[in-house]
Amino acid sequence: MKAKRRSAIPLLDDSGTALQSRPVRRRNRDQPTLPFDPMPGRIEPCLALLRPTPPEGPEWLYEIKWDGYRLAIHIEPKGVRIITRGGHDWTDRFPRIVEAAKRLDVGTAILDGEAVVLNKEGHADFGALQRSLGGRGGKRASTEAVFAAFDLLYFDGHDLTKTELSVRRHLLTDFLDGASGAVQLSEEAHGDGVELLANACSMGLEGIVAKHRERPYRSGRTGDWIKVKCVQSESFMIVGYEQSAAARSGIGSLLLAARRGDSWVSVGSVGTGFKAKDAEYLRKTLDKLKTKKPVVPVKGKNYVFALPTLIAEIEFRGWTVEGNLRHASYKGLREIQDNAAVFDIATLGDRS
Question: For the region Disordered, what residue ranges are annotated (predicted)?
Answer without folding.
Answer: 1-40
